[in-house]
Amino acid sequence: MSELLSTDNVYKCVVITPAGRKRYIEILYPYLKAQRSDFDHWQLWLNTTNAEDIAYMRSLERENDWIRCIKAEWPINGNASIGYFFKHTVQPDTIYIRLDDDIVYLTPDFISALYNQRIKYREPLFIYPNIINNAILSDLHYKNNLISYVVAPGYNCLDNIGWKDGKFAETLHNVFLDSIKTHSVDKWKSSFITHTPVNYARVSINSIAWYGTDMANIFKAIAPGDEEQNISVEIPKRLKTNNLIVNYPVCAHFAFFTQRPHLEGRTTILEQYKTLSELV
After folding, report:
1. Dihedrals φ, ψ of 102, to 5°?
2. Contact, 224 vs 80, CB < 8 A?
3. For residue 224, is the peptide bond before it cis, meaning its omega torsion is within 30 degrees of 0?
4. DSSP 5
5. Which helix (DSSP H) or strand (DSSP E) does residue 238 occupy?
């Protein structure tokens, strides 16, 4: 755990997750439990109609006073209904950190380190950590020779390799899992120090951090519509500001829906991450 930076205005830290799928959240949960002292509470946005998944999240809420389930007041419609939840992230004294439910690895100081990066870089609207299995970042890591593959990924959020190819994701995860097991995760910092998306390129929002004061001015522009496009492209462009990706902390995102059939049907990647989470 890294020490939180002292600032003139001390901000609370709140973690949020659009949720959720039990098979993924049960991997993320131990990481947040281990870093519990670094944030105020964890909001689970109940963006699902699956009764078993909802029951699991409600059980986590009952067992932990730092977990709060947020029920939708609107029809649930997959990714299209996530944007409406952002109205719950507008407190002026708070920094919010989003972790998608299929984030399957966090560096041990992830929350405090991303909080500190958010304090350090105040101007960007949203800050991204270093996300393993994010198409834009996969392009940067490939160019830094951290990944090898038969076809190079491209600098495109919906790239045919970095976003769509399940076998590429398997290769990437296997390399990263080896980094975890050999205590060499820091090498993934070497691809860049900070990176500003080129020409307002769309970047998947698997994890981002923002200020409640900023969100109060923009949350109504996130929904309806494509929340990721609005957050990563349209709103920054309209405000003439940029988002920023930092090289640390590091997290691993399991899969885009395009990669899931291969990763879940033909590999043990998820099981390996689950085993690691049980050791946290």
Report:
1. -100, 30
2. yes
3. yes
4. P
5. helix 235-239
What are the structural domain ranges in the chain?
A: 12-277
**Number of C-beta neighbours around residue 137 at 10 A:** 26
Can you give the pTM of this predicted structure? 0.96
User: What percent of the chain shows pLDDT beyond 70?
Assistant: 97
Q: Check: CB of residue 109 under 8 Å from CB of residue 216.
A: no
The pLDDT tens digits for 123-172 are 999 999 999 999 999 999 999 999 999 999 999 999 999 999 999 999 99
The CATH class that applies to domain 12-277 reads: alpha beta
pLDDT tier at 7, thresholds 50, 70, 90: very low
Q: What percent of the chain has pLDDT over 90?
A: 95
- CB proximity list for 48: less than 8 A, separation 6 or greater: 19, 20, 21, 54, 76
234 Cβ contact list (under 8 Å, min separation 6) = 221
From 61, 56, 85, 52, select the one nearest 71 (Cα to Cα): 85
For residues 239 and 4, what is the distance between their CA atoms, to the nearest angstrom? 29
Q: pLDDT digit string (tens) for 49-58?
A: 999 999 999 9
Strand 41-46 and strand 12-19: the pairing is: parallel
- In DSSP notation, 8-35 reads SSPPEEEEEEEE--HHHHHHHHHHHHHT
